[in-house]
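Quarterly update from the structural biology core.
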Amino acid sequence: MAGHWKEVVRLRLKGERYKEPALDLSALKKLSQFQKMVEETAQELWRAAHPNRERLPPHFEERTRLYLRKIEDGSTTAPLEIYIEEDKNLQTSFLDPEPKEVEEAVNIAYEVFEAISEGTQLPDSFPKGLIPSYSKWASEIEEGMELEIEVPDKKPIQVTPSNSEGLSIFSEVPYEDHINIKGEVLEVDVRQKHFQLWIDEKTKVLVKFSEDQEAEVTNSLKEHKSLRMEVIGRGNFSPDGKILGINQIDEMKISPVGEIAFDRSAKPISKILAELSKDVPQEDWEKLPKDLSENLDHYIYGTPKK
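Predicted structure, tokenized:
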């Protein structure tokens, strides 16, 4: 199907083993790990930008897939590309024709290691829960391998095992990040403006609320046996990713116990049918009766024609 390639990042390997335009299997493993890191970053960025949607859009994984089509000379350079599909039928209403999410993720990866190299703060949009993945990728650079990340219009940034030490500093302190969580409201403290949201029988989260949210919170407490609250906002997390509390509520959703939440990211049935129809050969379409829509019951059940 029609489309074109676009380079989004270059991984450059230096050292005695990489004077020729060739990659050994250990280097390929590093590329594969980078792909996974970018994919996870893209997913978390998308979820943070779309807190009301429970699932990733269709074809999201395909859109964040990086490809290696050539290896360049000079220290071995691996230009990683994405394939941009020009068939608009494959796109969903939640995604742009061009997969910007993978480019955003690649730029975040670059900015993370740039910040570590220059001793500055990590990007605000960086999903802090991915610090262990980034740290592991940097720490496992083998002896004799030098690795650089280069994105368009920016200078290359070197990634070294010492970057892992810089990241580990962030992994040893609590952090704040986006959160979307649902549970039962218990023990509201109106004076202190916080309540307990019980996720299950053993797990509770302390949530701060504002004056404007008090009525909805107290009503959820009063009807706690029949209602559940979903909180979307900002939370504090321990270094190992355990939620410590929610300090900002951007949105609250109240639903009856047992109600199945509407999935806004689910693919419309019309789009599913359109995709299925493309797999049916034209000659098979031509075999269908001309009056099928008017006499559907006749062709299925044998009832008289209209």
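The chain has a mean pLDDT of 83.
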